[in-house]
Each structure stands twice: as structure tokens, then as C-alpha cells.
Amino acid sequence: MDSDLAEAVSALKSAFDQRKISVRFDKAEPTQIENLRKTLKVPARYRSFLAAADPVDVETVTPVERVRFIPAAKLAEEQVGYAIPAEGAEPMPGWRKSWIIVARSALLGDPYFLDISKLDAEGDCPLFTTMTGTDQLKPELCASSLQQFLRILAASMEVASGFGDALMDDDDERTFRETLAPRIKTIDSAALRAGHWT
Q1: Which CATH class is domain 3-194?
Q2: d(Cα 40, Cα 43) in Å, to the nearest integer?
Q3: How far is CA 57 from the centre of its chain?
């Protein structure tokens, strides 16, 4: 794992420690990672993430979203019904084969996915989300790279620590998003402009 990605993983782990939220990262088996490369075309940077920090039981918690990562062992089955048709069914209309689901909203169930059609020289790509169950899929940029996605999640967790665990009303949610926005701007201005987090 390169140093930028390692720092982003470390920042996310620190955010969990700060919030005293129990998570479990592990190391995916090399044969499992190779199989994901062959079958799903999982890009190099995400494979290195799985090799060093497979998110076996990892869910971020903020007042406005919970992002639950999918561990390497379940990545292939998570694609069924989307890019891979369920038995006797068609793939999800509008879903592209270049989209690989790597996490889900634990609140709404919407997928967070890599778009491998936009790979960079380092084998990284942007992450998007989209609402499912609608007439048309409208992908929304979450982060320009995996490293930035992890940093945004870490920043969100850090900002959330100032809000406690009480139920939030609309004003609290707006305040959280306004507090988070400058942090996202320094991490990934394109993600801030896309508006998913704010």
C-alpha cells in the first residue's frame, strides 16, 4: 500500500478510535484478491487496500450517513443484481459493468461504488453513489479517489464527534454539513462541488 493510502487508512482508524467505535480490519488472502482482479477487474489501488486493510467489519457513523464497507469475501456477491444479473433476471437497468460496489449506506441501502472506467495511472478511480429504486440512476461523485474517500470519511467521523449521539433535527444536520464542508474542500474540492456530503 502506498504512503498516501496508508495515511488515509490510518486517519480512518484513528477516527474510529477517537469515537470509541469498534471495527475490524484484516488482510485479504492473496488468492482472493487475485480472483477479484480477474472476475470483477478490481483496480490495483483497491486491491492493495484489501491486502493491507480488508474492511471485515467497518461502518462509519455520522449524524447524516453510515457507510458500511464490504469485505473482500463478499465483494463478488454484492455485485449480484447490479452488474451481475441475479439468477433468471436482468442486470439493474442503467447499471454499468464498470461500477464495482465497495460499500453501502447503512441508512438507505444505496451503493457506494468505484467507476473503473476512469482509472488513473496509479490504478485508482473515483467513487460514486446513486439512489436505487428510482426510474433513473444518477451517480453522484463522493470522492475523486479511494484515498480521498477514506479521508472524507475520517473527517466526517471527526466532525461527528462534536455532535454526540443525541437525535438530530434539521438544524443540527445543516450545522454538521456546514462544519464538514471546509474539511472536504481541503481533501477533495470536486467532491465538495458535487454536493453528496454537504
Answers
A1: alpha beta
A2: 9
A3: 13
